[in-house]
Design a protein that fits this description.
Chain lengths: 100, 166
């Protein structure tokens, strides 16, 4: 069987790549995808711990995380559509003023 | 090297390559397709760990619903190639070191505390979906009801945000 550590280290690597994407991407949709990547990395750690400890609780947490991610995607993409309509850009560095 | 380990490394490599591709692609639609690769690879890893229901939900909800929403918004907004601006000097200097420090910190904590974890998983334990659902509707029934409320609020919020003002 695969040691639990391998899953956790893969989870850490994916989380780090998510942070890099979050910091370096300029497109607001790509930044949103970076957040989804980090949530996925955390889900992997949850399932790894759940299997390692022999408890199902971790998998229930993953289901909740997926539900929250879906709700977040719906609201976040609504905000993105509104921002793109009012500012005519998807670049976060051009959307730096509260006033339009 | 056992078969499970080979599958793990193949799927892990696929996930990491997909994540790196997400960062390097300039077009948002290509980033979205890379993210789908990561999610499918993670679903394979869940299946490898024996979490069959979570793997199915990962494919259906993440790979299906959420990514379709992303692709739909990308097409709706006609998002083209990413514009390279460099207004923030701090982000360009501190970004990669910060990410490396966080990743290294997490990995060091994992390696440091690895003796506390049980060494290996019991062989061939597939999580029973019946057990999962029993737990979800007994111990976690209040959080479950709260998530339905959360989704209701999210639907209302999305409708209010996305409607065109007249």
């Amino acid at each position: 069987m695969v040691p639990t550590n391998y899953y956790l280290i893969l989870s850490a690597i994916l989380f780090g790549l998510g942070i890099i994407a979050f910091v370096f991407k300029r497109n607001i949709i790509a930044i949103f995808m970076a957040i989804e990547l980090m949530l996925n990395a955390v889900n992997l750690a949850f399932v790894a711990f759940s299997q390692s400890l022999g408890k199902v609780d971790g998998e229930v947490f993953v289901l909740f995380v997926i539900v929250v991610a879906a709700a977040e995607a719906a609201v976040g993409l609504g905000i993105i559509i509104m921002t793109a309509r009012t500012r005519r850009t998807l670049n976060v560095e051009r959307a730096d003023l509260l006033k339009l | 090297m056992s078969a499970a380990l080979v599958i793990f490394f193949a799927l892990a490599a696929l996930a990491v390559i997909g994540a790196i591709s997400l960062i390097l692609q300039r077009e948002p639609i290509h980033s979205a397709l890379s993210l789908i690769v990561v999610m499918v690879a993670l679903a394979g890893l869940f299946l490898l760990m024996g979490a069959e229901f979570v793997a199915a939900v990962q494919i259906i909800v993440y790979g299906g619903a959420i990514m379709v929403l992303f692709v739909f918004v990308i097409m709706l907004l006609n998002a083209g190639e990413e514009e390279r601006t460099n207004f923030s000097k701090l982000a360009s200097y501190a970004g990669i070191p910060f990410a490396l420090v966080v990743t290294g910190f997490i990995a060091a904590a994992i390696v440091h505390s690895s003796s506390a974890l049980p060494a290996a998983m019991p062989k061939g334990t597939l999580t029973d979906t019946r057990t999962l659902s029993t737990l979800l509707f007994s111990d976690f029934v209040y959080p479950f009801e709260l998530t339905s409320f959360l989704i209701l609020v999210a639907i209302l919020g999305a409708i209010v945000l996305a409607q065109r003002e007249n």
